[in-house]
Amino acid sequence: MGDWTEADMPGQQGRVAVITGANTGIGFETARALARRGARVVLACRDVDKAKEAAGRIGQDVDVVRLDLAALASVRAAAEELAARYERIDLLINNAGVTGLTGRTEDGFEIQFGVNHLGHFALTGLLLHRMVPVPGSRVVTVSSIGHRFGRVDPDDLRSAGTYAGSKLANLLFTHELNRRLRDANTVALAAHPGGASTEIFRYSSPWFRVPNLLIARVLGRTPAMGALPTLRAATDPLAEGGEYYGPGGLFEIRGYPERVAASARAHDVVVQQRLWEVSSELTGVGYPV
Ligand SMILES: NC(=O)c1ccc[n+]([C@@H]2O[C@H](COP(=O)([O-])OP(=O)(O)OC[C@H]3O[C@@H](n4cnc5c(N)ncnc54)[C@H](OP(=O)(O)O)[C@@H]3O)[C@@H](O)[C@H]2O)c1
Predict the structure, then answer these.
(1) Residue 213 beta carbon below 6 angstroms from any ligand 1 atom
(2) Domain limits of the chain?
């Protein structure tokens, strides 16, 4: 098979896709592509004005829901609103993310771990009852090459309070969720963009931000290219639960999306299960599976 591009996406008519952090960057391009293919797209964003402006740029009939992943109350309110509005959810794309930001969420969690992992853990658990009856439904969580540098000790979560740790948590979560969904219609997959010239480094020092953005630009890693692995994980009929998609080229930083391997740590079943238990305790969200 040749390079997988947006043109390979099957039609998405009749499907509902919820995308977190969809007002900009990779989430925006994911939303735009899914809407163009006919999905009813919901931009789940913390800033409703930015989300409405993004919906305007997509130029199609796109919905907006307020979601601040740094506040469990907001996650619960968003999940309730989504469940009330949509009888079925076919795709949940856990895309939103922060790096280089310090501080805590409203509930006192380290902010990167809280937004990137715990917020999405809670949201997924609260929406799953709208997904499990839907044949072909998928949860896609956006990780990073950086997960390879992460450590997660679920009994000492200071270890996970780094961007890399939160991105490793995204993969540990995906694998455990997919195992728990064994007998359901829904599967869980992960993706990473390689690099892409987005706003992701907005909280990082210029010494980190500028070279990273330059490399992404030189390599032609537009946000649209960065969205392709997510789109493939979400829509390729041949993609299966538990798989991880990223750029297939040099060091996974460039090229078109292919199945890639997560680190050995991401496959540690004991850590996956313990992280699940701790995430459930911290968020107060139990899963129907
Ligand atoms: N770009 C890369 O090179 C790269 C590399 C590896 C992995 N990734 C991953 O790709 C995903 C998308 O990132 P991006 O590159 O598109 O970055 P981005 O341009 O900074 O977009 C991040 C999105 O997350 C949203 N967000 C941040 N905090 C949030 C919160 N508390 N609640 C809800 N939404 C929140 C942002 O909303 P606001 O605009 O309102 O802040 C924005 O919509 C992330 O998971 C990131 O870790 C990116």
Answers:
(1) no
(2) 6-283
- 156-184 pLDDT, tens digit each: 887 678 999 999 999 999 999 999 999 89
Residue nearest to atom 24 of ligand 1 (CA): 96
The whole-number pLDDT of residue 12 equals 97
Q: In angstroms, rounded to a whole number, what is the distance separating the alpha carbons of residues 255 and 145?
A: 14
The pTM of the full predicted model, rounded to 2 decimals, is 0.98
Determine the pLDDT at residue 1.
63
Superfamily of chain region 6-283: NAD(P)-binding Rossmann-like Domain (3.40.50.720)
- Probe ligand 1: pick from 23, 46, 74, 163, max atoms within 8 Å of CB? 46
261 neighbors 170 (Cβ within 8 angstroms)? no
pLDDT tens string 194-220: 999 999 999 999 999 999 999 999 888
Work out the angle at residue 253's Cα, subtended by the Cα atoms of residues 250 and 257, and round it to the nearest 5 degrees: 90
**Residue 106: CB within 6 Å of ligand 1?**
no
Edge-to-edge strand list for the sheet holding 138-142: 63-66, 40-45, 16-20, 91-94, 138-142, 187-191, 244-247, 257-259
For the chain, the average pLDDT equals: 96
- How far away, in angstroms, is 23 Cα from ligand 1 center? 9
Residue 93 CB–ligand 1 contact under 6 Å: no
Ligand 1 pocket member 43 (CB < 6 A): no
